[in-house]
Amino acid sequence: MSLCEAEKTFVLHGVEENFRLDGREREDYRPMELETDIVLHAFGSARLRLANTDVLVAVKIEIDVPFPERSKEGKLEFFVDCSANATPDFEGRGGEDLAVEIANTLSSAYRSKHAFDLTKLCILKGKKCWKVYVDILLLECGGNLFDAVSLAVKAALWNTQVPKVHGVNIDGNNIELNVSEELYDCDRLDVKNAPVMVTVCKIGEKCIVDPSVAEEQCSVGSIVVAVSGDKFSTVLQTGTGSLHPATLMESLKLGHRVAQRLDEALWATLRQIKPGQDVGFLK
Amino acid sequence: MPQKIQIRLASHRVSTSVAVNQRYPKIFTPGEVITSQNEFMRGHGTYEENSDLKASVAGVRQQVNNLISIRPLKSRYNGEVGDVVVGRITEVQQKRWKVATNSRLDSVLLLSSVNLPGGELRRRSAEDEHMMRQYLQEGDLISAEVQSVYSDGSLSLHTRSFKYGKLSQGVLVKVFPSLIKRSKTHFHNLPIGASVILGNNGFIWICPIINNSEDGASGFIQNLEEVVPRQDRETIGRIRNCILSLSQSKMMLYDTSILYAYEESLKYTVPELLVQEAMVDVAILTQQRLCMLEDT
């Protein structure tokens, strides 16, 4: 889908006027819907729907050997899969570039120890650690993928249950872990500072957040900021256009402000979750 | 002042149903037996197996005398001659444009079925062929009428009237084609200050009021300099959100239902109409008013 010039003009004037196509202001988000614990056989999962953007995230963990240079840390890996159901553009290898870009941005956002403490995933220094696989499936694209993915990832990690390790038997080079067999004998991950990403989209002279597909087409470039707590963890520029330093500073400030509101809203929702409320896809 | 960011839990989802007295029509699923009596004729959306008549799509049953057909809610657009459609140009070819109209195959707009600038009847020269991209290029939106249906189901369109042609500034909304109510006219200048084109293919175009100036060239000119004033923009945004509210609750779309929804929505601000509760509320109130209109 590509817009014609007149439609683009209409969007552009709307952004100038601070009244977008659906009536939102420049800093407004579309309502979202969140659900956790949706994949039964995963350790943690979440699904987030933002207008037409639909993201499913599942977390899987397994025991692994830590990297020799980071013997005290566990591992965290992201994988993004673009389903061809989302948009015909993803058919074949079409979505690969986008998938790699999202996965790389996520891993760089989570790399800092202020954002996510990997040492908590260590079981036995230098020998055993947990490896966390975060699998992200894009089911539908309605614009603003980065924000939706980051929120869904945070919710899925919040939902993840890591089995407790009760004891370790070391016999020479043989290490045996005594992992709890109880279903509910689990630890939660600490995701308090897990980063939230905000896409700041530059349309004309102004910057907006949460662009729809039409607005993404009108933009010359956008900046994705990942904010953890009150600090930036990653900044990424997408699109072809370049930004004036003043605009860049402005959009960073905007992204920071919005990310904190977004984080607050996510926590308010996560606190409401009670077990056994799952709805699933069919309804 | 930006609005609060809303993240709702799936378990708190609101039901979008607006059925009166909870009366739902029976919905057949593909493969479901409609009838075992073989005096009925097989219509669209059905097939015969082991002397049973079965549904091939998910939808409601419609019967005309002995002919049974199943009308699906969600489907691609099946065009009929005379339908008004809104479409987007996807390709410029020799002597024809390809138009995406939400059907299974792209529709065709022949160079000979458009009104070119400078007079009603004139020969299409080779020069016109070279100029085709100046008239309509990829991405442009047009309104047109279905001229004929080819044997493979693809449509041939024409814009040989002043009301059809290239669309200028406005918003396109996409809904299911089955939600558009067929009526005498699909072009509406609503008294609230906006024009709406309800394409039979489920594409709805909302734009500021069009002044029908009767010069032949107007069909290909877009005014990109003109800024749509704030008030028009709010009306357009509100109509857009109202149409989405109605279509979310699977209500038929025509001028009256859109007008009623607009009037009922006035107690909300435009961005508030993105919230589920407000959308369902508008749909229910509209449904009630439409029922009252039917009763009297």
Essential attributes:
heterodimer; A: 283 residues; alpha+beta; Ribosomal Protein S5, domain 2; 6-stranded mixed sheet; 4-stranded antiparallel sheet; 14 strands; elongated; B: 296 residues; OB fold (Dihydrolipoamide Acetyltransferase, E2P); 5-stranded mixed barrel; 4-stranded mixed sheet; 5 helices; flat; ExoRNase_PH_dom2_sf (chain A); PNPase/RNase_PH_dom_sf (chain A)
Please, could you describe this protein's structure?
The complex is a heterodimer of chains A (283) and B (296). Chain A is 27% helix and 34% strand. Chain A starts with a helix and ends in an 11-residue tail after the last helix. By secondary structure, chain A is α+β, with helices and mostly antiparallel strands. The longest helix of chain A is centred in the last third of the chain and has 28 residues, at 245-272. Chain A has one domain: Ribosomal Protein S5, domain 2. Chain A has five helices and 14 strands. In chain A, the strands form four sheets. In chain A, strands 1, 2, 3, 4, 5 and 6 form a six-stranded mixed sheet that branches. A four-stranded antiparallel sheet of chain A has the order 12-11-13-14, with helices on both faces. A two-stranded antiparallel sheet of chain A has the order 7-10. In chain A, strand 11 and strand 12 form a beta hairpin. With 296 residues, chain B is α+β, with helices and mostly antiparallel strands. Chain B has a domain at 10-72: OB fold (Dihydrolipoamide Acetyltransferase, E2P) (Beta Barrel). In chain B, 20% of the residues lie in helices and 29% in strands. Chain B has five helices and 18 strands. Chain B has helices spanning 126-130, 132-135, 230-248, 255-264, 276-295, and strands at 7-9, 27-28, 33-35, 41-42, 46-49, 52-55, 59-64, 67-72, 84-93, 96-100, 107-114, 141-149, 155-159, 165-166, 171-174, 187-190, 194-198, 203-207. In chain B, the strands form four sheets. Chain B has a five-stranded mixed beta barrel. In chain B, strands 2-7-8-4 form a four-stranded mixed sheet, with no helix packed on it. Chain B has a four-stranded antiparallel sheet with strand order 15-18-17-16, covered by helices on one side. In chain B, helix 3 (230-248) crosses helix 5 and helix 4 (255-264) packs across helix 5. Chains A and B meet through helix 1, strand 1 and helix 5 of A and strand 1 and helix 3 of B.
